[in-house]
Amino acid sequence: MLWSVPFLPLLAALVIHGFGKRWPGDDRGRAVLTLAGVAIAVATLLLVSVAVTVDWSGTYRWSSRIVLSLGMTSASAVFAIVVPLIAAPIIVYSAYHEASPVSGGGAERPPVGLVALLTAFVGAMELLVLAEDFVTLLIAWELVGACSWALIAHEWQKAGNLRDAAWAFLVTRFGDLGLYIAAAAAFAGTGSFAFADLAQLDGWRLDVFVAGVVLAAAAKSAQVPFSPWLFAAMSGPTPVSALLHAATMVAAGIYLVVRLHAELSAVAWFAPVAITLGLTTALAGGLVACLQGHAKKLLAASTSAQYGLMWLAAGAGFPGVALVHFVTHAFTKAALFLAAGIAERHVDSYSLTAMRLGRLLPGVAAAAMVASLALAGVVPLSAAWSKEKIVTAAGHQASWLAVIAAVAGGLSALYATRFQLLAFGRGRQDRTSTASSRSGHSRAEAISLYLLAAGTLALSLLWWPGVGNSLADLLSVHFPKTKLWELIVSLLLVALGVGLGAWAVRREVSSQQSEKRSDMADWLGLPTLTARGADAVMMFSHGLARFDDRAVDAGIRGSARFGVWLARLGERRGEGAFDGATSQLAKGVDWAGQVARRAHTGQMHHYYTGIAAGLAAILIILSIGALL
Prior knowledge:
By secondary structure, this protein is mainly alpha-helical.
């Protein structure tokens, strides 16, 4: 029965796509599309709830050695619930925010294809988080990657979108090789692809397995040096960015780390590697977000940074903390992306310096403020609770790690404040008038944003005494006990980050200045270094190609010419030489026959004489031998 959870949205996506061209093109069509998408998400959520309650499982025997299986753990249950919860308001938003243009002009149609892809994305992610073996996981992993590529390139008519989608796909595809390596190591060490048999892994195969998982998870969750692919992914529509960052593609990496944490932590080097990756990404991503002037890219950099904090928690030995931070971050980040999309509809740009829509959009600004304050780590909002637990988890490894994690939290406060004040601050009256003259947004888009902001507020109950302990018992995880000095330092850095963010906003002069800073904020030059490295590799490859043409191919061509020369030589002289040799051989055989024929006279006394001579020769030889 558990197979019904991923198959429902996957099959429904095919049905929705099949009705694409026959879908009504008016407001009624958008309403029907919204109801269909939400109904699928809600039905998926209900199926997950039943599966958790009655402990569903599913198996399919592919062969005697390969069994596809699904199961429910605390981590998979959390992800399986959060994915449709986040997807439902995003699907509502996409049905009204996006449109499919009709060929030859005319009215725009509802984005049936986009909603179908988003629904398939949900199904692929459900299959991924429920997988209990590597074959099923790899199938889901490939589906998630394919869906992300199709969604990023959804508006393929726009220049550069296909290139950006290919870049994001290839970068994560490189990391996917690690998962195949891990699966091969698991099978070599246990004779099975099942997660349940991973406890048998040991020795070098365990090291190879962990290295493969870390590579795959780091690429998917956009950890340094794979982080820049998130900027390429921003070419996709806003709902795609929201779902991809909050609950699907990027989340797949940290899910893998949390789900396989017991096996990963069995290797001594995993903890320092995960902590280093997480802290480096949290600091680098935070700095990039602080410098970005593009709303979606700022949020993308912050996603990378927040997942870096989750890696830090997992490396410190508290995967449950990473799990909770995933949940709080999912609602927060999805809300902020939807808010950014609404702002873009009013100013026709994602440039933060072109926005300041607080006067025009007070409701949207209020909802965005809830999400921004949560992202900043302001108490008592939800993401602040999980962020403080991450700081405490880091402190269990070393006090200086807690301080660095708190600094990363301060950067979160800085870029969250900067985003909120630039996007939804109270701008000048003339700018508000210009923005209000544009198409704006629908009520359905605003409701979607409000629902996600309400989810952020509801999760703030984590601060209520006893809720955290009850949650730990429910999920069978352990949360570290917060130390007073760590909390004080962290909150002081949050306050400092908010202050610096407000100060930075006052120094924003123009969009041109922001664009110059955005050039510096392109992942601190990492894409440029990557491009130069690629250029160097191409030059080296061209050099090898020239060597191949001039040396290797020249030798082969010389051998071919020598063979042709031998063939022509044989054609000219070979026939006479071979015919002469055959004739001489025949003459020699004939002469030998004539000589042999002379010994056969037919006279018996000749034969007796020969026999006597032979016997005499034998006796002489034997006598000589006896004397010696």
